[in-house]
């Protein structure tokens, strides 16, 4: 390749009466050129893959090292926030400042978590538990946790009368549905409605999360679950994000033997549908589920 020797090609003629001519020489040179290009491409691909592995290893180490002090910082910030609520000495400005610290630290922690998970997926190192999980109870906990952030939105759960059992990793599945519900909250306008419907279809548990938000452009939907992809519109340019959340969501759902899809119309809202295999093991005890949650 150029002036570098990558290897040699040997040609032989079985007949003593046959001699190489100019056509044979041209063919040999063309074969050698193509072989050299193939070898160089293989070398470049190997080098690129090594660089990707080194990048993922660095991101994994960096995310892990930063996450520990950040978790401590977030814990103390939340403690300070609770103390400020009980105190008459904190001013409105103090309350606002503490709230901003908690929100931004939580955002940074979520970003680091996505980075860590994405690197683990790429390296094949992410481990999953396989325990019986009641999706009704799990999603109900998430609904309760996002209630303070509804900000004028209405959130309604339906079809949650009985336990909906699957088998998997509770922490990872909680990450999936927290991400989808938080996105519905983030991209919905004041006064909008978010609906979570739980049902079964054959041997699958079906969870649909719908919102009346800004929607997703049709051209962006095929790329929505790709790594680092972000929808770029006038409505989303002011909303922070890494482009890793939905990638991680899809990988977790896939590792659980499930599927995720989305239907959306710009200006009207989106519906994310998750299907997971039902688990016919030991049933979980029934848990009362809140049906209607708002910020009144």
Strand content: 15-25%
What's the structural domain tally? 2
Helical amount among residues, as a percent range? Answer: 40-55%
Can you tell me the CATH topology of the largest domain? Heat Shock Protein 90
Series of secondary-structure elements, N-terminal to C-terminal: HHEHEEHEEHEEE
Q: Summarize the main sheet.
A: 6 strands, mixed
Unreliable runs: 284-296
Enzyme class: transferase
Organism: uncultured Chloroflexia bacterium
Protein name: histidine kinase
Keywords: Kinase, Phosphoprotein, Transferase, Two-component regulatory system
Q: What does this 3D model show about the protein?
A:
There is one protein chain. The protein is α+β, with helices and mostly antiparallel strands and 296 residues long. It has 2 domains: 1-126; 131-294, Heat Shock Protein 90 (2-Layer Sandwich). It has helices at 22-86, 92-123, 135-146, 170-186, 245-255, and strands spanning 131-134, 154-158, 165-168, 193-201, 204-211, 259-265, 269-277, 292-294. Strands 6-7-5-4-2-8 form a 6-stranded mixed beta sheet, covered by helices on one side. It has a two-stranded antiparallel sheet with strand order 1-3. Strand 6 (259-265) and strand 7 (269-277) form a beta hairpin. Helix 1 (22-86) runs antiparallel to helix 2 (92-123), helix 2 packs across helix 5 (245-255) and helix 3 (135-146) packs across helix 4. The N and C termini lie far apart (71 Å). It is an enzyme of class 2 (transferase).
């Amino acid at each position: 390749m150029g002036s570098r020797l990558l290897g040699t090609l040997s040609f032989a003629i079985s007949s003593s009466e046959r001699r190489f001519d100019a056509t044979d020489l041209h063919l040999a040179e063309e074969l050698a050129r193509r072989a050299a290009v193939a070898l160089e491409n293989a070398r470049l691909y190997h080098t690129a893959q090594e660089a990707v592995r080194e990048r993922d290893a660095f991101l994994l180490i960096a995310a892990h090292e930063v996450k520990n002090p950040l978790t401590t910082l977030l814990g103390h910030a939340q403690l300070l926030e609770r103390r400020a609520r009980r105190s008459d000495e904190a001013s409105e400005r103090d309350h606002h400042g503490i709230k901003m610290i908690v929100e931004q630290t939580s955002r940074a922690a979520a970003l680091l978590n996505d980075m860590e998970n994405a690197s683990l997926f790429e390296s094949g190192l992410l481990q999953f538990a396989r325990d019986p999980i009641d999706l009704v109870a799990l999603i109900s906990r998430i609904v309760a946790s996002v209630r303070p952030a509804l900000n004028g939105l209405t959130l309604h759960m339906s079809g949650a009368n009985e336990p909906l059992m699957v088998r998997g990793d509770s922490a990872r599945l909680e990450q999936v549905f927290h991400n989808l519900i938080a996105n519905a909250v983030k991209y919905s306008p004041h006064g909008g409605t978010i609906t979570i419907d739980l049902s079964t279809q054959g041997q699958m548990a079906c969870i649909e999360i719908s919102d009346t938000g800004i929607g997703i452009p049709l051209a962006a939907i095929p790329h929505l679950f790709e790594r680092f992809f972000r929808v770029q519109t006038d409505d989303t340019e002011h909303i922070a994000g890494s482009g890793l959340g939905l990638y991680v969501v899809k990988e977790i759902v896939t590792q659980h033997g499930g599927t995720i899809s989305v239907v959306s119309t710009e200006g009207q809202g989106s519906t994310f549908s998750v299907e997971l295999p039902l688990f016919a093991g030991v049933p979980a005890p029934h848990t009362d589920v809140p049906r209607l949650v708002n910020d009144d």
